[in-house]
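Predict structure. Chain length: 201.
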Amino acid sequence: MTIPGKKIACNLRPNTMKKTVIIGSAGAGKSTFARQLGDILQIEVIHLDNLFWRTGWKKISRGKQKEIQRRLVRRESWIMDGSYHTTLGSRIKAADTVIFLDMPLLVCIWGVIIRHFTAPSRPDLPERCQDKLDWNYLVKVGNFPTKDRDRLVRHVLVAQENGKEVIWLHSRREVAGYLRQVREKMQRDHRQQVEAALVGA
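Prediction complete.
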């Protein structure tokens, strides 16, 4: 299923991005992007990998995942990164913005390889949950375009129909460009607020 992405230069509304969901394949750069966006917007970043797994790669039950998420989405603002399908529908329902890092397969495979060798300890994972780089994991990443991607696309289309702001990014360059535009928009808004305050003083 191939769906054209939304142009990233249009309709930037960072001040209305209070609850943002970030999805995509393993290796797409979701966690790094989430931290960068959180720094710009000054919004709490929640890595679902850190909450849905326990030490030693022990995954918590689906019921517990749903319970944790129910508590989290009630917060005033957040950025959540993770594509867990069991909880994705309700997560998107609570969000105002959905960002899909729809990266090429080779970019994702390269991403997991580089991450394995350069980031042995990831802040988005519990202790003793080092990234695995074995054949099964690479096959899972390789199967994403023909399996999991279509499921994410369906969620994104429903989000669009329900009036959510959807941002579709297809390359590292688009990701960098989007972050730059959000940062610049935030800086302009801040300057305008300061100028308005000075005028009214």
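Summary: The domain at 14-200 is CATH 3.40.50.300 (Rossmann fold).
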